[in-house]
């Protein structure tokens, strides 16, 4: 049963159980997204190859750890609201609205291009969740805004590898992970 279909019998003071359930539903989507992101980042960490391997490999582990902690904080907030966080792989796959990460073993440039798209999606959805909780629950809103600060910094780390000296991103016109990976690879080949 998802958090959206169950109104808790209690929630935090000053929220109604119905509002607590709304906030928990928003957070469940964020929990799924953060869990998926942390696993995707670790997948990239294991499968990245090429001349910049060690720099990217080592850049990703702190991101994995931080995103995993974000997921834990979100899950604990759901529980605090009186709802049940769902953290199983099956629950994540059944409820996610995005596709699985597409790249396996690939160059650093290709993975970073794809991660640019991944981060864009996660950050956009996180911002929408922060907006949706702004009037409902200050504590949850603060949690999401704190997550955004770190997520946006990690996105910047990724984008710094994709940016030209003129400030143009090699992935600027991409709309998919595979398209972004291709665009990043082609820009690197053009040198």
TrEMBL record:
Gene Ontology molecular function: DNA binding
Q: Kindly state which keywords UniProt assigns to this record, in alphabetical order.
A: DNA-binding
Report the sequence similarity comment from the record. Belongs to the Dps family.
Record-given protein name:
Starvation-inducible DNA-binding protein
Its domain of life reads Bacteria
Under InterPro entries, the record lists: DPS_DNA-bd, DPS_DNA-bd_CS, Ferritin-like, Ferritin-like_SF, Ferritin_DPS_dom
Task: Identify the PANTHER family for this entry.
Answer: DNA PROTECTION DURING STARVATION PROTEIN, GENERAL STRESS PROTEIN 20U
Please list the residue ranges annotated as the Ferritin/DPS domain. Answer: 25-163
